[in-house]
Predict the structure.
Amino acid sequence: GVQFAVSSGSMILDNANQGTGNWAAASSINYATVSIGGSFYAGLLAVQCSAFTVSSGATINFKSTSLFNYLTLSVVGTFISSSPVSFIATPASAFGSSAFSVSGTMRLDNAFSQGSWSGVSTINASNVTVGGTLQAGHASFQTYMYSQSGTSVTLQAYQSTFVASSFSQTLGIFNCSSPISFVTYNGSTGVQFAVSSGSMILDNANQGTGNWAAASSINYATVSIGGSFYAGLLAVQCSAFTVSSGATINFKSTSLFNYLTLSVVGTFISSSPVSFIATPASAFGSSAFSVSGTMRLDNAFSQGSWSGVSTINASNVTVGGTLQAGHASFQTYMYSQSGTSVTLQAYQNTFVASSFLQTLGIFNCSSPISFVTYNGSAGVQFAVSSGSMILDNANQGTGNWAAASSINYATVSIGGSFYAGLLAVQCSAFTVSSGATINFKSTSLFNYLTLSVVGTFISSSPVSFIATPASAFGSSAFSVSGTMRLDNAFSQGSWSGVSTINASNVTVGGTLQAGHASFQTYMYSQSGTSVTLQAYQNTFVASSFLQTLGIFNCSSPISFVTYNGSAGTQFSVSGGSTILDNVNQGTGLGAAASSINYASVTVGNTFNAGLLAVQCTGFTVTGAGSLSFKSTSLFNYQTLSVAGTFISSSPVSFIVTPSAAYAVSSFAVTGTMRLDNANQGTGLWSGVSTINASTLSVTGGTLQAGLVLVQSRSYSQTGTVTLQASQNLFVANTISISGTFTSLSPVMFLNETGGTGTSFIVTTGTMTLDSANQATSAWGGTSIINTSSLTIQSGATLLGGQLTVQTVPLSVSGTMIFQSTATLTASSVTVSGTFNSTTPIVFTPSAGTPATSFSVTGTFTLDSTSQALMNWKGTSVLPYPSFTSSGTFLGGQLNLQTAALVSTGTTRFDPTALNFNNATITAGTLTLIRPVQITGTCNQFVVQSSATATFDSLGYALNSWSNAVGSALTCAVVTINGKFYGGQLALSTSSLTISSNAQMYLQAYNKMIGATAFSLGTSGTFMLNTTAQWVPGVGDSACTTFSVAALAVAEFDHAGYANSNVWSDGVGSSLNFSSVSVFGVLRGGLMAVNTSTLTVASGGNFSLQAVSTTLRANNISIGGAFVSPLPVQVFPTFGSRCSLLSVTGSLQFDYNGYRTGSWTDAVGSRLQFDTVQVSGTLQGGLLDFGTQSLTVSGSMTYEPKAQASQASYVSVTGSLMLVKPAVFSPYSGAASSSFTVASGAKAVFDTAGYTAGSWTYPTGSLLNFPSITVSGLLQGGLLSVNTTSLTVSGNLSC
């Protein structure tokens, strides 16, 4: 049977019984395809087919025999059976391709209703799809894939079972009056269960009462709820469970809820507790429980009457919404909350989570909680990053805590509000962030390693902060930059107990109200608002104490002691204020003395200490500091610095302790110090203060010392010192004074042993010795300054009266006025101020210390009353290896013996002798009134930029040298950066350098200059009055380089040039250097040149008249201009060969011949080089020319001497002009190769013949080359050609 089709119209079977329904017998249809497109009223009917279809608008109405075999069924119209139908996919072997689809309406067992079904329908198909309405009655579903996207499905599940390996509902209502156990087909794996949209109701018959007939169950890999799911009593087993946004599941749990991942974005409500168990246990590590919507467990009950305990068992628990967990047991590695709220009563007061993170919302637990880790794993972190946490909320109002909560994690951080009740803490790191609050009552147990409170930390009871483990104490830290209040329920005088703060580092950047407290720390640091406390047993244990801000207020005295006997490092109160024994500050009746015993003590604030003993290494009062106390008299120290205010109402014994440390001890006052302050007004001292220090300084401050014994190695002062010296002695090895130091009588400044002091400095201000006699100069005696170093600095004045000075260095940058004894002992002298002696002085070095240096940058005058007339009273002597003058030095008649002379100011003297190794004239003028023969081994003589040195200034003034010998300068290096007027000078040097813009003028003694290397810098000037023969400097074997830089001018025989080039002599000058380089102007006059390399660079200009018309050079490069008025015969240096001539600029021999039109002589010039390259201009005049290779890209003009030119290779790309014919022959040692005139180039032989209209010689020119190529223009005149190859692509005329 192929097909059975009622495509339209209507079919009625057993019509006789249609009215009664008492069917005579069954009709049957057995076709491959059955399609109903009209109306089909069949009565009792059996169907066997492969495909069954009810089209849109069609109706089939019948009573099934129960037999309905098919393979695919599609109902788009209406399908009604008054009895149950057994839809059996046939054959069974084709079950996998069977399909049952209802997108219209199907009603089975239609004659009956809920509770009175006549039988059970069976829907057996691989795929069941409902896109319309299916009223299935009492039905058994057997399918791999169930999919619903229609209006509704209603049924009573046969045996409360629904067989479907995959269940998907995307629309409409799924309404089952009975419970359903969703099971898979033939034991296949349940893939998914999805109520993506619409609603599902299970056990609907009992939804109103909640008296569930039995439990439904879901066992699929994935379960997703995207609509509304009212399940009644329900058990769930799955891998992934999801409730989407806007979706709701409402059920009563059997307690069984096995899963691996759960995500609730919508609403999840169970009226009973739920046991969420991660399954299998082996996959616990990947399990996840997430609520970002709403979950309510044991919803039918409330706090205090929970029906049971829910369990949340997952590796990761995440709450991003609302979780009302009821009485719950949490078992998780990682708990994370970022939602609105979590409320619970903790099962057995325990919350199992290896990591707890709350970033938002409220965590509200009615009971205490002991937070413990999962399976003994390490507790990683406990964080309330935001929101609020309330523990033991049932007792928050009364404070009658049920039991203690506890937290035991590696890190604990509070970023929100944490109200904990009674709490014990064990952690490595504890943090309260900015804006956060923790409020609790401590069990006293608070074990930690690091603590940071940026927000608020309040404990109503004392807290024992114990760094744990003790072995890690060195890395422990306690930090409060917010607010901490301990024993907050009590106050001063009524504390409930003692708090302990035990940490290697304690830092307070905020407010700490510690109550009655014991501090035990290596490092205490305070930079916050305030710390208030009563010190336990009047003791504060801290190896280092640092207060930079705020108030430290202790009601009792404090003995600051170190931790475990460790060395006390520092005690520093650099900001705010510090008050000790505050209850007695008003009366001064201190109960006991406070004590400070640290290596370093710094006071930078207002410190009111009461009765105080100090033992330290270093003690400092900063500029902002003010220390007020009454000394116990004990003040042991090594260094003391007072920049602020230091006031003791009684005398103080400053004793360096231990005495072995005296060498490094120091006592410095830059602020104000008053000792025995109660008696400063009357001068009736109550005792003697002692200042015992290796270094004592009063810098810019005031020391009112009262009656004082000073015992010091070094004394320095820049302020005002008022004292009454005990025993009229001032013991100091070194003295430095600025400000005002006044002694009414002469003073003996003694060192520790009564001998020579180390140094004596007056820096600024005025030091007056024997002040009572300064006005009359009737000296009361001679003051003695016997020191290794005496310095009077700028702005300072030493009015020495009658003074004996014995020193090693003497330095005056201020003013020193005195009546000297005839000899002044000093191994070095430095004057940058005013030094005035009315008589000559013989300076002698100190015994055992050789003379070193003499330096003047100010004004130094010897024999001052004789300076105007130069009627010297005698000769002063300066025997210093180094002499430097950058000020004004008026030496009178002087014997100067030095190794290094440096002048940068005005230096003027009449030398009786001058000896130096190095001389540098940096600026200003050095004037030697008469010539001087400079003796000794001179290394360098330098005249720096803007400086001028003049030898024999009297000779220049009279225009006649003072004597015939003149001056002599033999020096390894001579460098002129400024101006040097040498007079008549015998000069010998290895290096003579005249730098940029510098000038040097001299007349060479015996017309000889010794210079191994010569360099004239840019824009420099070198002028020789007459000729000079250049020879190597003394000790050198040969001259090396001679260089004239760009824009520089060097002129030899200036007198000859001035006399119209009539040279001073017939010998001329000579340059014998390995290389000569001219970048500027070199006017050589009559000159012999002998060099390996001669370079005239671009922009350079070298002119000379060659001695005997001969110039020796192996390589010549002309990039600028080289001009000789006469011919020049160029030969190599002896033993060498002329290699390269390169002309990129201009070279002209026999300038006079070109100027007059007639060569100077018949010999002419000579150029014989291996290679000649002309890219500029070469005017050779009458020229003996020969080269192996000639390249002309510029212009070359010459007259071949004897009608001959030697060239093996010629290439013309520019212009080659021969005034007369030339016979070209090979260059010595090289065969001829080619002669080429390139395109655009020009070569003319016998230009004179062309000009005259007749050839110069009857033999003409000869080109004898194997290859001749003319691509440009060759005018050969009268020409003989001998070649293997002649190529003319240009123009050849001859």
